[in-house]
Design a protein that fits this description.
This protein is mainly alpha-helical. The protein has one domain (6-35, 114-352). The protein contains 14 helices and no strands. Helix 5 crosses helix 7 (173-188). The N and C termini lie close together (11 Å).
């Protein structure tokens, strides 16, 4: 059942809930006060590395005459695209680096390398999702309108196609984000003029993105344009699959709770923190996987502090996990394989019937 009272669900007193808020606020203050040149240097290094990797991958793809060279270049391009999408695009758009006052590395100016228009996504994600995380009827990220992830969602016959729908969603995740973003923007202002402007912005972004990946770069390869076209397509699909894995493993595994809309009525800061803690999940990842996924293997910490730099999440997680243990709260984490298995089991079981 969807949770309507997080304090009652966790069996914590109002004093405990506010004490949790105080401790989390203290973590935020400590991180904010320690932000400085090392953090700024980090994000600039990531940007430089991502761009160098992107260029190198494209040169390998265009210049290699062997299948191994093509595979190496395509893998490098997929990693570069994942890095740009998650550690850069996702996190910069959250405002994690706005404190630098750098006009290039700012949430209002950064445009990511995918078909979705970042400004539209910022509204659907930063506001609709993060503020109302896992609140039924308020968070559109619950199942992305394609998957049934909780008994509270009504069953429909189309859900019998979940194995196919799930695969399509994963492989085309950037398109799902694009549609998701424009739908949320229309919901915010559904006047004909606003809807028309939003559609024009999205069409322009799609035209530029498809032109870059499937016209401009293949044309630069001249007679080898087919290799470049195939590499770009493959890298985009791999990036989409990896982004999908990061997102669903942070929100759908067993133990990630859902909430009744009444939970946000007169919600205190402590209760908001608790909802983020209960509605998210982590998974274990090494440094290369963590950075390519925007450090969303620390999804719990990211939802508690979405605008703090991702590179600080590992150190934050130590203190957050201790807080979970102090108040006997379930810290939802596990290996990537385990969390992915748990998500797939849930969506496929609920596609057939209600779980009892």
């Amino acid at each position: 059942m969807a949770i309507a009272d997080v304090s009652a669900y966790t069996r914590l007193s109002k004093y405990d809930v506010e004490a949790i808020a105080d401790e989390l606020d203290a973590i935020r203050r400590d991180i904010e006060e320690s932000l400085g040149e090392k953090d700024a240097a980090y994000i600039r290094r990531v940007i430089a590395f991502q761009r160098a990797l992107d260029v190198s991958a494209r040169l390998i793809i265009a210049g290699s005459r062997s299948k191994k060279g093509w595979l190496l270049g395509t893998a490098a391009l997929a990693y570069a695209k994942s890095l740009e999408n998650m550690e850069l695009g996702h996190n910069i758009s959250h405002g994690q680096w706005d404190w630098m006052n750098d006009p290039e590395i700012h949430s209002n100016t950064w445009e990511w390398d995918m078909v979705g228009y970042s400004a539209q996504w910022r509204h659907s994600h930063n506001y609709r999702h993060h503020v109302y995380n896992n609140v039924l009827g308020m968070d559109d990220d619950i199942g992305y309108r394609w998957l049934r992830v909780t008994d509270e969602q009504p069953w429909r016959w189309q859900l019998l196609l979940t194995p196919l729908r799930n695969l399509v969603l994963a492989a085309t995740f950037e398109w799902g984000i694009a549609v998701h973003g424009i739908r949320a923007e229309r919901d915010a202002d559904d006047t004909p003029a606003a809807v028309g402007a939003a559609k024009r912005k999205l069409r322009g972004k799609i035209f530029r993105q498809l032109g870059k990946d499937y016209v401009f770069f293949p044309a630069l390869s001249l007679r080898r344009w087919r290799r470049t076209l195939a590499a770009n397509f493959t890298a985009n699909v791999v990036r989409n699959l990896w982004v999908y894995v990061n997102i669903i493993c942070g929100h759908i595994p067993g133990g990630a709770e859902y909430f009744d809309p009444t939970v946000v009525e007169d919600e205190t800061k402590g209760e908001w923190y608790l909802r983020q803690m209960l509605g998210t999940a982590n998974f274990e990842a090494g440094p290369l996987l963590a950075i390519s996924g925007g450090h969303l293997c620390y999804q719990i910490e990211h939802h508690l502090f979405p605008d703090l730099p991702s590179r600080r999440l590992p150190e934050i997680s130590v203190r957050v996990r201790a807080l979970f243990e102090k108040y006997d709260l379930p810290y939802n984490t596990g290996s990537l394989a385990l969390q992915l298995f748990r998500t797939q089991r849930i969506v496929h079981e609920l596609a057939v019937t209600d779980r009892s």
